[in-house]
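SAMPLE LOG
Freezer: B-3
Tube label: C17
Construct: single chain, 490 aa
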Amino acid sequence: MLHYGASDYILHLEDLRRLLIHSTMKKGLETPEDPEEMRIKDFFFNLTDLLVGILEIDDKYFSGNTHTVMKLSRQIAERMGLNRKMIDSITLGSLLRDLGKIGVKQQILNETRELTEDELMSIKDHCQTSLKLLKRLNLPWRVDQVIQHHHESYDGSGYPSGLKGREIPLGARILSVVDSYVAMTTDRPYRKAMNGDSAVEEIQQKAGTIYDPEVVEIFLSVIQEDWKRNADSKERLLVVDDEKYIQTLIKLHMVNEGFEVMTAENGAEAIMLIKQKRPSLIVSDVEMPLMDGYTLCRALSQDPAFSDIPFIFLSSHKDPDDRIQGLRLGAMDYITKPFDLEELSLKINTLLKREKKIRRDPDKESGIKGRLEDMPLQDIAQILNLGLKTAKVEIHPDTEENHGEVFFSRGEVTAAYTDGLDGEKAFNRMLHWNAGNFKIRHGIQSKVMNIAKTTMGLLMDGVKLIDEENRDRDMQTTEERLPSGGSSAR
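STRUCTURE (predicted):
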């Protein structure tokens, strides 16, 4: 467990040295079942997470973002059933993806105006900079492809290589979705954050153009479970302590658990912050200059707007009378220093679970939804064919009461059904539907195969048939408009 104190700043360099020697001698961790090997690997991942967290700790826009991206990327990779080596590569790649932004001027990253072409290029180069920084480490995990291509787009419009579909490494496709979601739901200098629902809706709309639709579907199931765990929004924690390193240790730990963390050095500064942003819970030292923890607690208890905020005291005094005094003031707990961060975290989470109400019911049907006006069946089929996807597409047109289903296996259409039709006739019928709803559900196959043509052959024949029908209809319309024949006037 992690305790604070001077020893926390002395990292286990011997473990790190052994890991780097191990990674240089061995190109890959094919079966990391040895307990010692797993311990070193876990240490390296946790150390990397910690160091990246330290780099972000005072950034009001990015603090905690990398940990969130890492957690969601790993969950998606695990949900997809990838092997351990690939999961580790994606996890570490997500932690190190933006390391190259160290070389980008902070002024550019925090700019509110529209960036110049040169400034945009300096930001786009951060992937290559990250790879240059990592090149000498010779890591046993293939993170280079994940980092280099996580800004590629599924339709080939991304950078740096313009890859599309399955040309983009799977780890990069996963990271692209997660990185975009976290960016959308975070305040930036030039815009406010979206709420989770709006960000998910935008990602769904861009499935098949910017994002891999199969990854998007799995992301949706992961993020909905994450919403269940974290309720409507991040809980906001206020840490009040005049010892800066204690603020930093608590903030690092709690940010990685999904909290928004504010810090203050005394009670007077804390009150100013509380009036700007109401915290879900306050952790305050007892002894501080200007206004101590007891005075802060009394001041808040007398204000109806803030009197119900849960309070936890920290103190160097082990005298039982001090503890009694703190609890009498209304504090939920009184913790003596030095304390265990895991224990503090458990108490904070337990208190908030008891206090908060359920604010969201994220249960939704699985699958990627959209409108045929935005993506007709012809486009859906090409996207699934490009990615060699196995999926079921459900279509509900606005103009008819019936509905249709199309099944794909590794990108090829295998079966199609509408009311009264099946096979190619059913597929061609659905090509005519240009208004309505669709849903793509990945991983579902048809037990029966009623289409033998390739997807592209099917589309070419279907489009040709529609063109012929349109041409016949135009000719019929033209003939109806011509004067009818008859006897000439005398």
